[in-house]
Amino acid sequence: MADTASIKGLAVITGASTGIGYELAKCAAQDGYDLIIAADEARIVQAAANLKEFGVAVEAVDTDLSTIQGVDKLMERVEADGRSVDLLMANAGRGLGKGFLDQDFAEARKVVDTNITGTIYLVQQIGNHMRARGEGRILFTGSIAGFMPGSYQAVYNATKAFINSFSFALREELKESGVTVSCLMPGATETEFFKRADLLDTSIGQSKKDDPADVARIGYDAMLDGEGDVVSGWKNKLQAAVANVTPASMLAHQHAKMAEPGSGEK
Fold this sequence. Notes:
Organism: Rhizobium mesosinicum
Keywords: Oxidoreductase
Number of helices: 9
Protein name: SDR family NAD(P)-dependent oxidoreductase
InterPro entries: NAD(P)-bd_dom_sf (IPR036291), Sc_DH/Rdtase_CS (IPR020904), SDR_fam (IPR002347)
Shape: globular
CATH topology: Rossmann fold
Pfam family, one: adh_short
């Protein structure tokens, strides 16, 4: 049981072993928040060790966030801490490249279960506690991918469209509650996402990408400011603006050029 007299707040960050999630956790640690970080890989333990260098308490939970049982495991650790969660950064996400009919359905379903089911289940658990006490901040990691039909990333882009939309709906529902909801919408970022999603041979996989530390800082600051959404980077802002006025069929065709297997070799 943590010392409930601690003046530090508590932040929960998912998908925090590497990339944007790790950088979000670093932002919170630098601000003096104690951390509970989670991911579905053993590297979350090393991430926790690194984050302790900021002088805060860090607890790592290695759990499958695509399952209800995995989220329950994280919630058990949160509740055992004995403190309220001040910041929830729901960042866990999974991608998958190649044409939908060529994908293993179990892998496609894991994208849906991680990006949507596990995410909104966790947010409902912690969000209810926040609403009950009248304060708290929630940050979703959405994506500008949610603005366009994702040919050769069809399932992933669709899940991010869900998260982008869901975050705004939840924000409206909680606007009088003292709980803020924000959505970070990055573009292509230099993380292990593209390797894990088998997209390294694509045009987007081989393109120059944003720094995850910069992306995380933009999202973290937006959350603290209570902003509804933030698109990181001027190129991504332009792409998002163009997507809003471009026919879906054209967007799907453009995305295929970026994500089609072998497009990085053309």
